Amino acid sequence: MKTKSIYFLFGVFASAFLKSLFMAVTYPSKSDYILFHSEGKPHLFFIFLGTLLLLDALVIWFILRPKAIGFWLALASIAVSKLEEFTALQIALRNNDLIKQLFIEQREARGRPMDDNALRMTDVLFSPTGLYAGFFLMLAGSLLVLLVLWRNRDYFFKSYIWR
Predict the structure, then answer these.
(1) Rounded distance, CA 41 to CA 33, Å?
(2) b/e code 104-142 from CB counts within 10 Å (16+ = b)
(3) What is the dihedral of CA 125, 128, 134, 137, to 10 degrees?
(4) Cα 147 to Cα 60, 64, 74, 143, distances in angstroms
(5) Which of 24, 61, 97, 98 has the most CB within a 10 Å radius?
(6) How does 60-93 read in b/e, with b if 16+ C-beta sit within 10 Å?
(7) pLDDT tens-digit profile of 14-52?
(8) DSSP secondary structure letter of residue 161
(9) CA distances from 61 to 23, 30, 99, 107, 125 (A)
(10) CA distance between the termini of the chain
(11) d(C-alpha 134, C-alpha 125), whole Å
């Protein structure tokens, strides 16, 4: 069981790292960047992105070579990720029309036209209730990762000293 949960943690942090790396390469077209830029805070986007890239890369390293600091870096990565998501949520709540427009543009760019049902769905998804629901779903996923991380803390603390 331990091996599967370590693979799970590796997958979670590897996918987060790859997502951040992809975002670093394609940031001008990403809605997160556009949201932060709309508030005049593109530097915040890059601070979050750089921090998460570094933390996730280090967590991956310390999953492969377990040390106590890997556990703490994983906690820090999850915390920074939630802080970034909460900050983006606050910006999205202030710029509701912008996020709807970004969604519509991205959908149409993939060849999926906006019919009446899609427009109603957009209004529901990007309402304050929909945005909060999405945030709390992501928070629930993070709580699952925290639970798995906590249950496997001894994997990182094999000798209780900094190695």
Answers:
(1) 9
(2) beeeeeeeeeeeeeeeeebeeebeeeebeeebeeeeeeb
(3) -140
(4) 18, 19, 12, 6
(5) 98
(6) bebbeebbbbbbebbbbbbebbeebbebbbebbe
(7) 999 999 999 999 988 888 899 999 999 999 999 999 999
(8) S
(9) 21, 27, 35, 36, 37
(10) 25
(11) 8
Distances (CA, A) of 107 to 38, 46, 57, 100, 120: 20, 25, 31, 11, 14
- Supply the pTM of this predicted model: 0.87
H-helix or E-strand spanning residue 49: helix 42-64
- The backbone region for 160, taken as left when phi is positive above 0, alpha when psi lies in -120 to 50, beta otherwise, is left
pLDDT in tens, 109-143: 888 877 888 888 888 888 999 999 999 999 999 99
User: What is the C-alpha to C-alpha distance for residues 84 and 80, in angstroms, rounded to an integer?
Assistant: 6
Phi, psi of 65 (to 5 degrees): -130, 80
In which residue are the tokens 């997160």 written? 32
